[in-house]
Amino acid sequence: MFLTMQFIQSLIAVALLIVPRSSFSEASPLSLVPEKGIPTKVIAGVTVPDTPIVQAALAFARAHADNMTFNHVMRSWLFGTIIINTNTTLRKAIDPETHAVAAILHDLGWDNTGALISSDKRFEVDGAIAAWDFIEAEMKNGTAHGWDENRKQLVWDAIALHTTPTISAYKQPVVAATGAGILSDIQGPNSDSTHTLTWEEYDRVKSEFPRLDFGPGASKIICGFARSKPATTYDTWMQLFGDRYVEGYTQHAKGKLAIDILKAALPN
Ligand SMILES: *[C@@H]1O[C@H](CO)[C@@H](O)[C@H](O)[C@H]1NC(C)=O
Ligand SMILES: *[C@@H]1O[C@H](CO)[C@@H](O)[C@H](O)[C@H]1NC(C)=O
Ligand SMILES: *[C@@H]1O[C@H](CO)[C@@H](O)[C@H](O)[C@H]1NC(C)=O
């Protein structure tokens, strides 16, 4: 009788593993299989897709990031995944591989090798373009399975808008969730706009991917852009860093800001 019960329990366990993810209602994000048929792996207790394009994206991000940025990217991906997997609506609406590629590649615009950084575009756009080009290359050489213009565009938008939650929150679910995951890495649960992430989850992910002074490190990179390509920071959230920390920035910005242009608008 005992053996029979055990056998039945095993059957149930196997059955649970093969039902589609939409059948889960309140499943734990930690035990969730993101999508039937997609290979997965567990990182810091979070189940994520482990497909060829995700592996290639990880290698690409690793090759174009310092340790601080790479750890931030990993935490952002894992926090976004927790946010998605905890909410049935999001879990049904979001393809985990699209989210993975967007989150993993979201900081290509501050590539520490410099190769992906333009002189004339804001860093979010550099990142979006680099990710787009990466996906196209993957589609050409057969590493990207089931990718089309729409998924590529979702990744582009998610990266271009990841610093603008006042817009990204109202875009497609994957764009909103990518942004929410990234924002959550600034202050943990305190900056999680979806109020999903717990401190326990935050600490577990952080211990695997230490912060390495992310706050001051990111500020330094932002000030670098305010110095090296100031025009791309005018009228963006980065402008305040230039105004506050970069000598001569405010003076140079005069006449070039939206407020100046509107003030000089043509009369009737
Ligand atoms: C970055 O991390 C790797 C592996 O964790 C380590 O071997 C390397 O020394 C680190 N680089 C720097 C500059 O700290
Ligand atoms: C799940 O996400 C949707 C879309 O963002 C949101 O409207 C809803 O309130 C969330 N549900 C819960 C239970 O948080
Ligand atoms: C396909 O191209 C990408 C981008 O250049 C590269 O990262 C990946 O390793 C390539 N994959 C194969 C199977 O050639």
The protein's oligomeric status is single chain
Give the second-level CATH assignment, the architecture of the largest domain. Orthogonal Bundle
CATH topology name of the largest domain = Hypothetical protein af1432
Low-confidence stretches: 1-34
Largest pleated sheet: 2 strands, antiparallel
Q: Evaluate the radius of gyration.
A: 21 Å
- Reading the helices and strands in chain order gives HEEHHHHHHHHHHHHH
Helix content: 55-70%
Give the cofactors and ligands.
2-acetamido-2-deoxy-beta-D-glucopyranose
Count of all domains: 2
Q: Would you kindly provide a written description of the structure presented here, covering whatever features stand out?
A:
There is one protein chain. With about 270 residues, the chain is mainly alpha-helical. It folds into two domains: about 30-210, Orthogonal Bundle (Hypothetical protein af1432); about 215-268, no CATH class. The protein has 14 helices and two strands. The chain has helices at about 1-20, 50-65, 65-85, 90-95, 95-105, 125-140, 150-160, 165-170, 175-185, 200-210, 215-230, 240-245, 250-255, 260-265; strands at about 40-45, 45-50. It has a two-stranded antiparallel sheet with strand order 1-2. Strand 1 and strand 2 form a beta hairpin. It is globular, with a radius of gyration of 21 Å. Bound molecules: 2-acetamido-2-deoxy-beta-D-glucopyranose (3 copies). One 2-acetamido-2-deoxy-beta-D-glucopyranose (NAG) binds near residues 87, 89 and 90.
